[in-house]
Amino acid sequence: MSNDHYWRAISVESVSPVCFPSVALYLKSGGNYVLYKDPHRMFTDVDYRRLERSSTEFLYVRSGDMEAINEFMESSLAETLARDDLSGIAKGRTLYQTSLNCVIDMFESPESAANLQRCRKIVQHILNHVATDAPVLESLKTVIDHNFYIFAHAVQVAALSLLMHERLFELAPDEMNDVGVGSLMHDYGMTYITNELLDKNDALSEIEYHKVKQHTQKGYEHLKRSGNYSDIVLNIVRYHHERYDGNGYPTGIKGDEIPRSGQVTAICNVYSALIMNRPHRKAHSHADAIKIMHEESQKGAFNPELFNYFVQIANERNHA
Q1: 297 exposure class (CB count in 10 Å sphere: 0-12, 13-18, 19+)
Q2: How many CB atoms lie within 10 A of CB 210?
Q3: 35: how many CB neighbours lie within 10 A of its CB?
Q4: pLDDT at res. 9
Q5: Looking at residue 41, what DSSP letter applies?
Q6: d(Cα 308, Cα 267) in Å, to the nearest integer?
Q7: How is residue 23 annotated by DSSP?
Q8: 67 with 95, same domain?
Q9: pLDDT for the residue 89
């Protein structure tokens, strides 16, 4: 059995020389994790330049060291994103690495007020970044290849959904924040699905597909019971698999009976799933993903007006 779940990939750009926490850093070689820096040695500019020359994009840490790393990355994120000496892609990788770490903790403990507060701060950073920096999706694709699908997918859906809401609707800051939290948590119900089922390479049986479809309702019910989440958040979690023609789940509502935030997230959810590698297939290109979604839209999957806006925005970001 692979021991990859004991490890987390950390973008080299997010490892700040001199002031990174005192944790061991590893390189991955041939499926093995090889010690690069022990906890007692400082990570320096020399290390950074050496890794840059060797085109090393990621270092690895033990999952038990993530609490210290999260505290550092989140406290220094605003300063990192304001740096003039970092490229947009480098900033994007750091932002998404920090966001992904936060989402993992949110999925593990959604009732935690501290985690929810962290999540809200991350949402504001995502919103500020995706609205101004075109390389945002490119930077995320690299992070996706080195982390758990469900969490990286959550961050990408949140980025796309926030961008659409920012472009199309005049929402109050609190509403935008709730859109971001809901998008990050939209697949929380997947925590009730076994890894064996999620990682299955073959087509799902009818019974297996029924179990997977339950994630929307189960996620909604659990988060609602906690009492910490607004209707916007809960609507996104519950309705992101509804279809505009009424053939979605869990309720089968259609048209504008589906809350607008749910309609937007549904579009972003499908696009993100298509352009990411999955156990049963390789990622589609941007162009192929849009083609597939256009065919589905013609059949009634999406609000046509929102889908057309999405295509415009996604094309802009993909070709920037």
Answers
A1: buried
A2: 11
A3: 9
A4: 84
A5: S
A6: 10
A7: -
A8: no
A9: 75
Block residue for tokens 């709730």: 178
The Cα-based distances of 89 to 84, 129, 213, 235, 242 in angstroms read 12, 11, 35, 32, 33
| Residues with Cβ within 8 Å of residue 109, at least 6 apart in sequence | 115
Distance between CA 131 and CA 123 in Å, rounded? Answer: 12
- Domain-embedded: residue 82: no
φ, ψ (nearest 5 deg) of residue 179: -60, -45
Q: How far apart are CA 202 and CA 233, in angstroms?
A: 32
Q: Specify the DSSP element, H or E, that contains 34.
A: strand 32-37
Domain count, the chain: 2
CATH number of the domain enclosing 309: 1.10.3210.10
pLDDT of residue 135: 55
* b/e burial code for range 79-94 (CB count within 10 A of at least 16 → b): ebbeeeeeebbbbbbb
Domain-embedded: residue 81: no
C-alpha span between 235 and 237 (Å, rounded): 5
Same domain, 39 and 61: yes
Residue 190 sits in the same domain as residue 56: no
- The pTM assigned to this predicted structure is 0.87
Q: Nearest CA to 93 among 154, 161, 153, 144?
A: 144
Tokens coding 26: 């590893």
Q: Which amino acid is at 237?
A: V
Half-sphere CA count of 97, side-chain side, radius 13 A = 34
Contact residues for 94 (Cβ-Cβ < 8 A; gap 6+): 11, 13, 14, 73, 77, 80, 81, 86
Range of the domain at 119: 87-319
pLDDT given at position 138: 59
Residues 247 and 315 in one domain: yes
Sign of the CA dihedral running 72, 24, 107, 156: positive
Q: What residues of the chain score a pLDDT lower than 50?
A: 1-2
196 shares a domain with 221 = yes
Per-residue pLDDT at 1? 36
